[in-house]
Amino acid sequence: MWKYIARSAIGIGHQKLNLPCQDYAGCELKGQYLIGVVADGAGSARFSELGSRSVVRAALRFLTNHEMEFESRGKTIWGNIKKLLNTELNWKLLNTDVTQLIKPDNQVSIEDEVKAYFQNLLQECIADLRREAQQNNCDVKDLASTLLVFIAHTNWLVAMQVGDGLLVVRERDESDYRLIIKPRRGEFANETIFVTSDGAIDSIQTAIVNKPCAFICAATDGVENVAVRLSDWSPFAPFFLPLEEYLRETDKPEEDDRYLMDFLNSDRLNARTDDDKTLLIALNYDSTN
Asked: What is 38-97 written as a DSSP string?
């Protein structure tokens, strides 16, 4: 089973300019699947706080609807993922490139299936943004936002990312934390790709983890400077360890969020970043390690 919590805190830079928090996140448990979504509205976009909220809600709705299809028919992308990643394979096989060992009946690779699935999700998010733009009488690019999504099963995880942000996991029986997808930047410093960018659908990055994840952390780039070493994008363990321990010690993290909110609003963290900060953390407490 999973324990999880998602919280955002406004950056001191936004506080000084009297701007709202432009991050948004959501996390839900659907049957045996934990689904998480994190979005960071573009600082230069006029209504980016509406954009980040819209893409998170659209993504959660898409994931929920498609889960129901998976449960009832077993013939969607979820069924193919389950066929691949829940198959009883010995550890020798698991140490090979498992994603190439089992393919759906149409011989399309599981990586292509996952990418196609998330491209459909992104199309729905873009459609929602267009409706939001009409309601607010603005251009859709005024709602620019990044998007990070993961689906975690007891035995595997799949994820997608458009733009920056961090998705870090610790696999069961491993002591090290691992960055799943390297954030994609634009041509210039502090520039990234957004859901509303031209070619966003083709820019999707996806990842498959074919081992159980004991701990998951999805975050916006407001914590980049303290969470990872930017020279090689390796996660900084002292950042993640206390978060994992907090989940271990907290029975109901959604109700007991003081530790996380105090951390996100701490002077120590604000001294390193003036941006909005979002953390979505999850612990598989059935894991033995």
From this structure: EEEB-TTSTTHHHHHHHHHHHHHHHHHHHHHHHHHH--SHHHHHHHHHSS---HHHHTS-
